[in-house]
# Entry
Amino acid sequence: MKLRSVYSYFLFFLLIGVLFCTPRVPAQAQLMNVIPNNVDIELAPQHPGPNTRVSVDIKNYSIDLDRSTITWYLNNKQMQKAVGLTHFEFRTGALGTTSSIDIVIATLSGKVVRKNILVRPGEVDLVWETSGYVPPFYKGKASYVNQGFVTVVAIPNMVGTNGKKLSAKNLVYKWSVDGEVQGSDSGYGKDSYTFRGSIVPKATEISVEASSLADGTRATESIELDPERPQLLIYQDDPLYGVLYNKAILDTFPLTTDEATFVTIPYFFSGKTPTVANLDYVWSMNGTDIGGAAKKNRVTLRRSSEADAGSAQVSVAVENSREILQSTEYDFSISFDRKAKEITF
# Structure
């Protein structure tokens, strides 16, 4: 028992001597030997498309990158190596390919930091349409006007890591308007977004990010929509052929018959038809209101008596009582020769 006690005291005092006699390494020196692997990598563009030039920049405030030797590898092939080389550029491949970027940072103290990023290109197109009115057989695209409704549809062209094209309905969409995320309109399968133009006439930027749930493949796109003023055009309503949409009255209409009926078409105004209740028409001739003789968007003008050759100025103004920024006007002249009669309504 005495030998065991002596041995225990010996071990105790030996441990005390080791703790107090061993020289300590300063805490600051210990921290300097540890280099955090928190290198920030910035891509421009952040989500590149196929065959796109990409810039890569690295930043780290714990490492003196300006005095470090930095080597860049693209798909395991060394591309550049230099002191302080924090910028690198490359071109992405076709859809379905992956670009592997390896960055090796060797500091002056001999420490090495490695980073790897994978860039998988994808693309998404944005197409839009508005609910503004256009006449039958109109071949153009209805313009976006002030306070008009617009639907933007995302058409992705993305390939997953398995080499198969990703379905548009199986992607997650994040929609933004002027940089502000539209949370309630974003989500799984929401490949379209509908909005109404602001009461302030200004351009609106619509952007979308489409991403895959499975492998993180993503693509972004944005468009800027600048509202226009709605337009008016005047057509003759022929008693035999109907409204002659193929020939608008641009300046002067020669009146060669006893009467003529004119129809105004409100291009791009909100509404299903040109005679919706919220569209107000104001007709006038030579400055005199002839609204009583007009029926909404049409008016009939007739001859009444002999008159010298001359002309009459006809104008019409249209405004939307619900969308106050949707208003415009149009005027044209009616000419008649010496044998014609004065124009009445």
The first strand starts at residue 40 and ends at 44. The two ends are 134 Å apart (CA to CA).
